[in-house]
Amino acid sequence: MTKAMERDPYANQRELTLRGMVLGAFITVIFTASNLYLGLKVGLTFASAIPAAVISMAILKFAKDSNILENNMVQTQASAAGTLSSIIFMLPALLMVGYWTGFPFWQTAFLCIGGGILGVIFTIPLRYAMVVNSDLPYPEGVAAAEILKAGEGIVEDDDGNVIQAHAEQNTGIKEIGIGVLLAGAISFLTNALKVSSDAASVWFKAGGAIFQLPMGFSVALLGAGYLVGLAGGIAILLGIFIAWGVAVPIFTSQTVQPADVEMIPFAMQIWKEKVRFIGAGTIGIAAIWTLITLMKPMLEGLKLSVRALKSGNNVGLHRTEQDLSPKAMIGYMAGMTLILAVTFYQFVADSSLPAGLAWLLVIVCTVLTFGIGFLVAAACGYMAGLVGSSSSPISGIGIISIVVISLVLLVIGNMNPDLLTQADGQFVTALALFCGSAVLCVATISNDNLQDLKTGYLVKATPWRQQVALIIGCVVGAVVIAPVLDLLYNAYGFTGAMPRAGMDESQALGAPQATLMTTIAKGIFAHNLQWNYILMGVAIGVALIVVDLMLRKSSNARYSLPVLAVGMGIYLPPSVNMPIFIGTVLAWWVKSRVEKHSTDSNRKTNLKNVERTGTLFAAGLIVGESLIGVILAFIIAGSVTAGGSDAPLALSLENWETTGEFIGLFLFVATLVIFGKRVLASTQ
Questions:
Q1: Would you tell me which of 76, 176, 431, 520 could form a disulfide with 620, CB atoms 3.0–4.6 Å apart?
Q2: Half-sphere exposure of 507 toward its Cβ, with a 13 Å CA cutoff?
Q3: Rounded to whole angstroms, what are the CA distances from 488 to 27, 268, 291, 462, 633?
Q4: pLDDT computed for residue 431 by the predictor
């Protein structure tokens, strides 16, 4: 036992409290709803650990006996649920293939609970190797720990001794609050009143080639971009150029434009039917390459997992070394596997397949979820430790999972033709997506668990209590996901799946990853996947991987080209990508300015203040816009139910399109200026 552990200043402090769990559940509902909306709209989610920690400190500071460990448990619970919302990368695909018309509560909840808790359990044995005895940076985990310490007024020396405590608290709740109010007001003007536009583009032709200069005005995406980093922003910009500066112009110049189709719809159709598959290929090969590079730590993680399950219990271990016991872990694994099996049985039972084939599918899907989930857990944990939860390519894991699952079910279908013909092939596609959703739950929580445990390690939390908080977060998040998804679907619809005829498809939530998963699964079973464009994207991805390796080697890892971000730049709508890119440039500019104008003595402190303030303000922008989206979903759903319109609050403004675009641009630029000034003010 180390000296730092012998000096345990938190030995008698309460950690997992009832009020903390209630507060964590409240924050969970907010961030899960926000992440669901943001993820369905643009295919991105944000890590909720840091804003959850700030909100927890701001509220619990009114309780005289609150402490850093209790606040840590609240953010742990909330971050688990916020991460579980990544289920939207695949689950909405079941509506897109026409198998579901809504989100069945119990099937959705049990799928998320079973997969999420397995994700917690699979990564517990990795805690010592990847958190305690590792030099992985865990950027969000370390940042959350620093914020918790700052809020508590705690300063430690290099040996872990508390040398200052109970200083004046500066939780940072003000930055989140300003971001929420600003983004909420702009979102209300844009999405409710329809006074300002959320995007503007310049289109032009050169011969037969069509070009687009895009711009989007979402301040939530500006905040998301601030958290991505400049390398990711440049990669996204490169993806936009490949799509709209090269691919779309070439394809439009080689394709005859129908006389009854205008220029913009024609170009968008080319992008959807051809160019997005190129982006899918680039995303897929980037994900596979990431897994290959992580093969060694993944195998090490598997060995550690097996070894830990064979070891003893927590007897004799210091409080900060106690994980859930192997007996408890085995019990949880068995229970969650049973829950998943029952959930798969409920799904398959609706198909009227022969009993033998139905049970075979239940067993195969359960084994695939457990097996693939176990394999990717270590990889996801390592990726989160390396680049952070927000930047970890979870959607790439989803692509690989859906391909593997679809191919396995295709083999079974070739031996049992009833499977492929059931509901005209719709059922087997839906089953592959349903099983893939379970794997995605395992992967997303694995991606988050070690990040939270890193925070706990730095603030001297009790690991097993954190693991219980993670499990609670999974359950609360799972209960919230289905009703929020139903609400958003009925209010806005998804691309390719509209709940009612006559809805404005331009307002539909894009759900880009779910759209991609649908295309891949349907293409595999129908044997008509457009492999030529996908392979074109794979070739681009391979070339970019080589460039990335050369950049890293020549610059001693200072520079890189995230290939996955290039793929997203090709695949996502350009009006989504541009504000993300601008956010990355803002973060780079602010950091460069602070480094230039700081002295040697205060540079480190200034950079830390800038990072903290920028992170919190960005989180506020994301939450503010997302919450208005969810609130509007309630209003729209109520209006439609009563026989009203899909835009009940919209002002009837004639010939307003150009004016709306200028207002949108003004509000975006104003937010950019306010954002930069507030962050720079934190250094004064």
A1: 176
A2: 22
A3: 19, 25, 33, 38, 6
A4: 93
- pLDDT by residue (tens digit) across 584-621? 999 999 999 998 888 877 888 888 888 878 888 887 88
pLDDT at residue 458 above 90?
no
3-state DSSP helix/strand/coil % of the chain, to nearest 5: 75, 5, 25
What DSSP string runs through 365-402?
A: HHHHHHHHHHHHHHHHHHHHHHH-TTTS-HHHHHHHHH
Structure tokens at 358: 């139905």
Please, which residues have CB within 8 angstroms of residue 335's CB and are 6 or more apart in sequence? none
Q: What is the rounded distance in angstroms from the CA atom of residue 299 to the CA atom of residue 463?
A: 23
Q: Kindly tell me the burial class for residue 288, based on how many C-beta atoms sit within 10 Å of its own C-beta (0-12, 13-18, 19 or more).
A: middle
Tally Cβ neighbours within 10 Å of residue 366. 22
User: DSSP letters of 608-632?
Assistant: HHHHHHHHHHHHHHHHHHHHHHHHH
* Residue 5 scores a pLDDT above 50: no
pLDDT over 90 at 191, yes or no: no
- What mean pLDDT is predicted for residues 287-295? 72
Of residues 185 and 394, which shows the higher confidence score?
185
The pLDDT, as a whole number, for residue 332 is 93
Distance CA 217, CA 229 (A): 19
In the chain, the largest separation of any two C-alpha atoms, in whole Å, equals 80
Q: How many CA atoms lie within 13 A of 311 on its CB side?
A: 15
Each as own residue / partner, the long-range contacts of residues 560-563 (CB below 8 Å, 24 or more positions apart, any chain) are 560/231, 561/231, 561/234, 561/235, 561/238, 562/231, 562/232, 562/235, 562/286, 562/391, 563/235, 563/282, 563/285, 563/286, 563/289
Dihedral over alpha carbons 252, 257, 262, 263 (to 10 degrees):
20
Distance CA 90, CA 304 (A): 30
Q: CA-to-CA distance for 530 and 519, rounded, in angstroms? A: 9
The pLDDT assigned to 590 comes to 93
Query: How do strand 155-156 and strand 162-164 relate by DSSP bridges?
Result: antiparallel
Rounded to whole angstroms, the Cα distance separating 40 from 61 reads 35
- Degrees, nearest 5: CA angle 430-433-435: 110
- C-alpha count within 13 angstroms, C-beta hemisphere, residue 219: 40
CA pseudo-torsion sign 582, 92, 286, 384: positive
165-179, 283-297, 540-554: which has the minimum mean pLDDT? 165-179
Integer Cα distance of 355 and 62 in angstroms: 59
Tokens 């024609």, residue located: 266
Lowest mean pLDDT among 111-120, 132-141, 456-465: 132-141
SS3 581: helix
Residue appearing with tokens 């030995």? 11
38 has a pLDDT exceeding 80: no
d(CA 321, CA 133): 12
Burial string for 147-156 (b: 16+ CB within 10 Å, else e) reads: bbbbbbebeb
**CA dihedral over 598, 600, 604, 605, signed as positive or negative:** negative
Tell me the CA distances in angstroms from 589 to 103, 157, 582, 675, one per residue in order: 43, 32, 10, 12
Mean pLDDT of the chain: 82
| Distance of alpha carbon 561 from alpha carbon 541, whole angstroms | 11
What's the number of CA atoms in the CB half-sphere (13 Å) around residue 393? Answer: 25
Please, which residues bridge with residue 209 across strands?
Answer: 206
Give residue 541's pLDDT.
93
